[in-house]
Every structure is written in C-alpha cells, then in structure tokens.
C-alpha cells in the first residue's frame, strides 16, 4: 500500500474555521497587549534616580532589585498585603460555606417557599453594588464596623453568585447517589457532609479561586470602608500611592508596588486558569 | 399520609439560613434602605427628613449629572462594540488546539484577573507625559506629545483604552466557549458541500453563536455602565468633568460631598438602567434555551 | 435472610396524574419476582415505593409481616441496586460496601468480614481498594450488588440493573444473578422491560401496564396463557399475530372442544377454546404465535402469504408478509428456508395453540389439561 500523501490527509474542521493570517494578526496584537505590562515590569527593576533623568533608561542596564527590597522596609505595603490576604481568605471561606449549604438545600431539599426564595436570590444577581453601597456604608457606621476585617469581608458574602453556582453543581450530581445513601441509612447531614460535599470539590475549587480573586481585587467597598491607612487592602494602598503620582517616591518604586500587588493573582491565575475561566464564563452565561 | 424522604419540612430551611441572613441584611435591606434614603434629606451619620422626590429633581437638574450620563453613554457606545468585535476576532483566530493558540488565549485573558488599581497604574505609566511609554514612542517618531489624561476629548478615550485592555478576556472566552459548542459534523457537512471559508463563517459559524454575541454585548453594557475605578484613578473625572461617569458622580456626591440623598437618588437611576439591561439579558438567555 | 412482601391496595399519584392504581401483590419469602412492563407503566415507581424513595399515597406495604411504608428508606431492611449503580465516586470499593454498615454502627471487625466474604462471593477481592471510576461497567455492577449483599437485607430490589451493560455481559450477569439467588435464597424483586430477563430469572412475573397489574404468573403461564391481549402482544418475540374475529359460528365445535370462529383472512377456524355466551365480539381477535405456524406444500390446504421481509435467524426463518385480505402476519419456516421476499407461500397454523381475545382484551385459552 502506498504511503498516504499530504493531500490524502483526513479532513479537519480546523481547516475551514481557522486561518493562519488571523492567527498572526492576533499574535501581533498580543505584543501590543503585553507591552504595557512589560514596560511596568522593566520600570520596577530600575533605580529611581536613573529614571528621573528619563524613562528610556529602562531599555538598558543596569537593573536593580532595590525597589523590591524597599517595599519591605519603607512602606505599609507588607501590612496591606497581609490585610488583603486575611480579607480575601476569610471572604472565600465564608462564601464557600454559605453557598455549599444553601446550594445543597436549593438543589435537594424541600421546604416551604423553596422556589420563591430561590427566585428572589437570583434577583440578587441583578443588583449592582452602587445600589446598595451607600446604605451599607451607613449600616456599618452604626455598627462601628468600618476599618475592621469582618467589615471588609462580610459584604462580599452576600453575593448570590456562589449560591447559584453551587446549586447548579449539586443538581448535576445524580439523585441516585442520595437515594443509595438513604437506603444505607445515612442521616441527612451526613449525606451532605460525607457523600455529596466531597463530590463538589471541583466546584469548591472554582468558586473558591473566583471569590479569592474578586475579594483581592475589590476596590469600591474597601475604598469607603477602610479609611485608616493600616487597614487598607493592597488594592486601596496602591490606589493611594497612585493618587500622589506626581510627588511619589519614584516611578520605579511605584512600579514595584504594582508588580508585587499583582503577584498573588498572577500565580493563582497560572495554576488555576481553567477554574477561573469556568467560573467567569459560567457566571455570565448561566 | 405516608412519609417520604422528599417531604417538605421547615427544618430543611436551616441549610439556607446562614446565607439568607447575610443576603437579607447586606443586600436586600440596604437595597430598600437606599431607596428610602433617596427620598430623604440626610447626611451619612445623622437624621433624615422625608422630602419625596426632591432628590431626584435635584439630580436631574444638575448639569454635572447630565454630563456624567452623557459621558457614560458615549463610553458604553464605543467600548462595548470594540470589546465585542475584538473578542469575536480573537476567538475566531485562536479557536484551535495548538499550544501557541492556547498560550495566546491565556495571555489575552490574563489582564482580567488584575485589580483595577494595577490596571490603571500600568496605563498611567503608558500615558503620563514625559516619561510614559507613549511619550517615548511619540518622541521617537518626532510627533508632538499628547496629554492623554489631561486633555478634554482624550481623557475618556484613554480610560476606554485601559478598560478594553482590562476587560477583553471575558468576551473572548465566552465566544470561544460558544464556538466549541458548534458540532464539528456541521463543518464536515459544509466541507462535503464545498463551502468556502467565508461562507462557512457567515452561514455556519456566526449564525450558530448569534445568541452569544447578543448576550456578550448585554453583559458588557451592564458592566461598562458601572465604569468607576478606571476613571476615578486615571483622570478623577477630569478635565472639567469630561471623563466623569455616573458611578463616579455617585461616589463624589455621597462620599466626598456627603450628600447622601442625592447620591442614592442617582444610584437608583443607574440601578433602573442596569435592571433594564439585566431583564433583556434574562429574556435573551431564556430564549437561547428554547432555540 | 428472606422475608415476605405484601403490597396492599397501593396507589400513587403525582398531582392529578395517577401512576399506580390500587395495586395488590404478595411475594413469598425467597421468591424471585420480576416486574415487567413497557416504560412508564409504573413498575419502577412501585419498586421505589417498596424502597421508600417514593411515598405511598394510599395502601400499605409489609415486609416480613412488619408494616414498612411509614419507615424511612434506611430502616426498611431492603437493599437496592440502581440502574446507574449509584456508587459513591469518592470512596473505594471497600468503603462503598462498608458505608451503610458504618451508619448502622456495625462492629468494625464484622464489617470487614462481611465485605471480604461478599467480595469473594462476587470474585472481586482484588478490586477492593479501587475507586468506581477505575472500574469497568461490569465491575461496577458487581460492586453495586456487593454493596447490597453486605447489608444482609430482607429483600433485594433491582432497578433495571442490566440495562447499562453490553449484550454479552448482560447475559452472563443474568446467569450470575440467578446463581446468586440460588445461593442466598433471598427475596428479590427485579424491574425490567426486557422479557428475556424476566423469563429467565423470575419465579413469577408481574406484568404491568398503564398503572395496573395485567397478570401475575410463572414465565410459562405468562407466555402460554396470557391473561390479556396486552400481555400476549408484549411477551414473545416476534409479537403474536392478531387476526380480527368477525363472527362466532358455534361456541362449542363438533368435537366439543371449543368454538368455531369466522376469522378475517382465515375463514372458518375450528379452535379448541371454549367461549362463554357473553363473549364480547366487537373488536375481538384471534392470536397466533409464529412458532405455531408452518409453511406447507403449494398444493396443500392453507392460507396465502405474500412475503415482504425474510428474517433469517439461523435455526429458523421468519417470514413477514400479508394475507390475501391485506392483513399482516408473521410465519415461521425452517432454518433452511429458500423463500425470498416477493414470493407467495402457503402456510397453516396449529389449531390447538390459538388464543382468543374479546373486545375488552380479556384472553381465552384452551381448557387446561386436568
């Protein structure tokens, strides 16, 4: 039998749907896309005094780590980083707990007004933050909860997105699994805890990462709730440095702050890209 | 009546109690409290006096608000089509299983995970006069420098560039997800029918993801109407309010000028606009389910 | 361990839709009973009501003399094998089997020994540390059965457990189930829509149709003396051919054995089926199974069949065709048949193997031999 020639290669849908030229345009566009980030990365490795003379110094040596070492001595950046960690992790744990419990109930249990309540919760998805943020600010003032970790974490836990996502995941688990557990004489909470919850681990990862990013990046609420400098989250801290852009300690130092602040999310993104894309597109398309 | 494991019980509602507590106290209550505040003359910490719709009257007769609405509408009208078109283009270009495509997809989506402060910081480093990346480029080309953030007409545009850079990943990913839903035998049938690439694109690919295109556009309208951080951090609405969006107006009114009544009134107006878009979105999604 | 199961006037409705209407049934201890019927007939619902997964609207269910329809599923002493097996995906095979016993606070050593012995019975001791996702369909099926065995239940409930297996594995598993039942001697209820499974496994078959029980009987009774036209048509492959009865010539034929009928397409037929005077003629039919027909020589007495399709099954050949009156009929010929589609053949049928159904679907058969 003759060797298959190139022309005889089997059909692939790629051939009709993609185009080499399109790909290369996208590749060039990617360079434009990444250039600003590389620019900032470059600035962060330059000595401030050199930059004062002109920022084109970026394109030639010498480079230095001084801006990064300065981060740890001369500023509140490390404290802000810690605040952000506490708030983001706390909010994530809270969202996972609340959403798992509620998602299980909405997907599997019967109780009065279940459907009505679920619809109301879904309506919550349509409420934008600015419609509630002023009233929330007042409430937290009454309760004296501004400038506290709990005060920074709590509002994010009211989002209906997690409940919606977990409900979908619980619904996707075959009912027969619950029924087998019932026939195995398993009490209700044990079914939730021992049988179903372990099966939602992929969903927990997706929702957890998504919530962490959202909390880490949140701007509006910490901006008005954290008014004391040592209670700033990293996002707000960087914003406050940025606001004094002109009289800042130096472009290089500011750039190092930006790089440092984005490191956690970049790391999370590199490791969990798939989960993030799932969560983000799942939220938009339903 | 015999017992069933699916029987409806109040005790089952205990599972939703923790979430419902947070939901009611931190979302539902503030929502209605905000509506009430918009009908009162009050400040952030003190008493209130019912004044009916007067706050709304004040908001609508404030030229600054009118300017903010205008800015926002212009911003949405330009940024949303740009995001949809670029996202669609990228998804078509990168809908392949090769390693290079997957790398580029990851790259285009990566900016989405950054916080607004980082995004604006990055773009300020690009836009600042003198030392910015663009300033360097313009010098090299021998062009006159532009004050991207401080010139009327340019400032909102610059905010838009940063926004598109930040938000581009989501439309692309949504389109990619839709493209992958198209059954490959459709393309095989088209190949047997001798269809050209262009006809495949216009007669098979685009019609198949039509509802996703509409959906992405609405999601982006809802998101871009809420433009805030980029404008606040890059231009703070300036110069002369030419880049101030509605949310920044709400923020300034409520938390800089402490006029809570007017701030909440403006936020209810925005809420109404967004609710309308969300309803259209719901309508489109449920129709997509039928189709 | 085995127990009787008594189902008494059980009714089930979802809102206005009744799915089971006044079902009564007694199952003996150690009996293997198959619920057979088309999809939607309520057979699975009845099984799930015994398991406690569906509530009982009216009526009672007793297992071993104890009323259980008010108990939660876990307290009824039954074990169920699901169509999809419903193994816990995150637990190993051994953990899957142990889980129910742990819930019952059974002693650890006892659990281990039961799991071990079930694993040996089912020849899967080497799989105990694997997770279900690492098992083949047949192996999962065994684990599901093993999970039921370790509970030492009063009754086993099987909900179409073979339908997810491929054909070869299905017939092997069928045999193994029969052997398992012989060894354990437990009461077993098996739901299926597959008549071969029902015929081969059951002591008694419960044929269900449209919310009701059509017939309860041994496989031979169901096949040879179907109680209704529905049972006659549902059981047996190919389906029984039905010919309309247009008139009764005499209720008792000359040899005193049965009625002589006027049958469309077949003319006068002397049957061995005695009919009562009250027989409802309107819509009545005469049924013939293909194995009771045979092709005859061209010159001999018989009916003409214009063959449209020939199905060669090896040991026999099925001829699908039409009578002169246009009526459809399936006739059996030998495995060496040379008949081809388009030809016309003559056939006859065995007068002693006829079934008669009145207008309401009720069946009449030749008198049983004393």
Automatic annotation (TrEMBL), chain A:
Coiled coil: none annotated. It is found in: Cell inner membrane; Cell membrane. Residues 81-272 form the ABC transmembrane type-1 domain. Its main location: membrane. PROSITE patterns: ABC_TM1 (PS50928). It is a multi-pass membrane protein. The chain crosses the membrane at residues 21-42, 80-105, 117-137, 149-170, 191-216, 251-272. Keywords: Cell inner membrane, Cell membrane, Membrane, Transmembrane, Transmembrane helix, Transport. GO terms for cellular component: plasma membrane. GO terms for biological process: transmembrane transport. It holds the Pfam family BPD_transp_1. Belongs to the binding-protein-dependent transport system permease family. Part of the ABC transporter complex UgpBAEC involved in sn-glycerol-3-phosphate (G3P) import. Probably responsible for the translocation of the substrate across the membrane. The complex is composed of two ATP-binding proteins (UgpC), two transmembrane proteins (UgpA and UgpE) and a solute-binding protein (UgpB). This is sn-glycerol-3-phosphate transport system permease protein UgpE. It comes from Cohaesibacter marisflavi. The gene is ugpE.
From TrEMBL, chain B:
GO terms for cellular component: plasma membrane. One of its GO terms (biological process) is transmembrane transport. It comes from the Bacteria. Keywords: Cell membrane, Membrane, Transmembrane, Transmembrane helix, Transport. Pfam families: BPD_transp_1 (PF00528). InterPro entries: ABC_transporter_permease (IPR051393), MetI-like (IPR000515), MetI-like_sf (IPR035906). Its main location: membrane. The keyword Nuclease does not apply. The keyword Oxidoreductase does not apply. The chain crosses the membrane at residues 12-36, 68-94, 106-126, 154-179, 200-223, 265-284. Residues 69-281 form the ABC transmembrane type-1 domain. It is a multi-pass membrane protein. Belongs to the binding-protein-dependent transport system permease family. This is Carbohydrate ABC transporter membrane protein 1, CUT1 family (TC 3.A.1.1.-). It comes from Cohaesibacter marisflavi.
TrEMBL record, chain C:
One of its GO terms (cellular component) is ATP-binding cassette (ABC) transporter complex, substrate-binding subunit-containing. GO terms for molecular function: ABC-type transporter activity; ATP binding; ATP hydrolysis activity. Keywords: ATP-binding, Nucleotide-binding, Sugar transport, Transport. It is a peripheral membrane protein. GO terms for biological process: carbohydrate transport. It holds the Pfam family TOBE_2. The keyword Nucleotide-binding applies. Residues 5-235 form the ABC transporter domain. PANTHER family: MALTODEXTRIN IMPORT ATP-BINDING PROTEIN MSMX, OSMOPROTECTIVE COMPOUNDS UPTAKE ATP-BINDING PROTEIN GGTA. NCBIfam families: PRK11650.1. This is Multiple sugar transport system ATP-binding protein. It comes from Cohaesibacter marisflavi.
